[in-house]
Write a structure and sequence with these properties.
This protein is α/β, with parallel strands linked by helices and 336 residues long. The chain has a domain of 225 residues: 3-Layer(aba) Sandwich (Rossmann fold), CATH 3.40.50. It contains eleven helices and twelve strands. The strands form three sheets. It has a seven-stranded parallel β-sheet with strand order 3-2-1-4-5-6-10, with helices on both faces. A three-stranded mixed β-sheet has the order 7-9-11. Strand 1, helix 1 and strand 2 form a beta-alpha-beta unit. The longest helix is centred in the N-terminal third of the chain and has 20 residues. The radius of gyration is 19 Å and the shape is globular. It starts with a strand and ends in a 10-residue tail after the last helix. The relative contact order is 0.14. The mean pLDDT is 93.
Length: 336
């Protein structure tokens, strides 16, 4: 078998940093991502890019041939999509295709990327650890449910003896997020003066480069069928905005939005997006509902087992803002 490492979703935020690390380690890397994905930020001449829709099982079957190691990151990470069934088709069925076809092709190790949002429970009072057990009725929204089912499928394969390891990153931040994931968009909006009010919530943040390093360690040393939580520091949205205010000399948001008002606005925003604009709304119902959950995590056991020490989140936020400036996302608001 050819000694190839496959990264699905390798053009994305976490995926691109993972690809950089793997190439730096001398790996032969094949990147699978959706047709039309931006790839000019990946190491030129160092990877083999395969455009592939993971909903197409036949295309996935061809893409995984010759791959000894498979990192599965490909998913729709947004909390809204116009056709809600898209989450099931991409995040769940796409995972089924990648994992089953990789095993059929003889892959020796597979890492499935899950998410922290499926580990939250109603009325949670303590920080969440990697062994949290959540019933499906506690999982919020179509995005989270699709990722929940995908993780369950990965564990099902592992219980049957498949070499599948699962990682659950918390919210990744740092430079290089061309796709503007929700935490990046939140910070960018603040820097552009678009956050006069805020809906506070707990968050766990980790540098995207530490997530990528943790994935490699989990692939190399993780135990099949075990969930590894990749998280660093517990913050709140208010604390993030406070740090950004000090960093940029912009004023902090003055008004805290009551939860019922935020939820009503999210329903209206999604209706407009569904019926008129077709673009991701500023507020999503799933996102607002998640603010009612305790999103503080304790990843110490996973980090210790993997030998991973994440860098301070303040460094990650600072480098993210520097990157916003470098790619001219801030325009005249924040000159370099």
């Amino acid at each position: 078998m050819a000694d190839i490492t496959l990264v699905t979703g390798g053009a994305g935020f976490i995926g691109s940093h993972l690809v950089q690390l793997l190439v730096g380690c001398g790996e032969r890397v094949r990147v699978l991502d959706r047709p039309g994905a931006k790839v000019d930020h990946l190491p030129a001449g160092k990877i083999h890019f395969v455009p592939c829709d993971i909903r197409d099982q036949g295309a996935v079957r061809q893409a995984v041939q010759g791959c000894r190691v498979v990192y599965h990151l490909a998913a729709n990470p947004q909390l809204w999509v116009r056709r809600r069934g898209h989450f099931h088709a991409v995040n769940y069925l796409g995972t089924v295709h990648v994992l089953t076809e990789s095993l059929a092709a003889g892959a020796k190790r597979i890492l499935h990327t899950s998410t922290e949002s499926i580990l939250t429970r109603a009325r949670q009072t303590t920080p969440i650890a990697e062994d949290q057990d959540v019933p499906v009725r506690d999982v919020i929204g179509p995005y989270c449910r699709s990722k929940f089912r995908a993780e369950r499928f990965a564990f099902h394969l592992a219980r049957g003896g498949a070499p599948v390891v699962v990682v659950n990153p918390t919210l990744p931040i740092g430079p290089g997020d061309w796709g503007r994931s929700p935490p990046t968009q939140m910070m960018l909006d603040f820097c552009l003066g678009k956050r006069p009010a805020y809906l506070d919530a707990g968050l766990n943040l980790i540098d995207v480069r530490d997530v990528a390093a943790g994935m490699i360690r989990a692939m190399d040393h993780g135990r099949p069928g075990v969930r590894y939580l990749l998280g660093a520091e517990n913050w709140s949205i208010r604390l993030v905005f406070g740090y950004l205010a000090r960093l940029t000399d912009l004023p902090q948001p003055r008004w805290r939005v009551p939860y019922p008002v935020a939820l009503a606005a999210a329903y209206v925003s999604e209706w407009v997006a569904d019926a008129v604009t077709g673009t991701i709304p500023a507020a999503t119902v799933t996102g607002v509902k998640l603010t009612r959950r305790r999103m503080h995590f304790d990843a110490s056991r996973s980090l210790t087992e993997l030998g991973l020490t994440p860098r301070p989140v303040t460094e990650s936020i600072t480098e993210a803002v520097d990157w916003f400036r470098a790619v001219s996302w801030l325009g005249l608001n924040q000159p370099i």
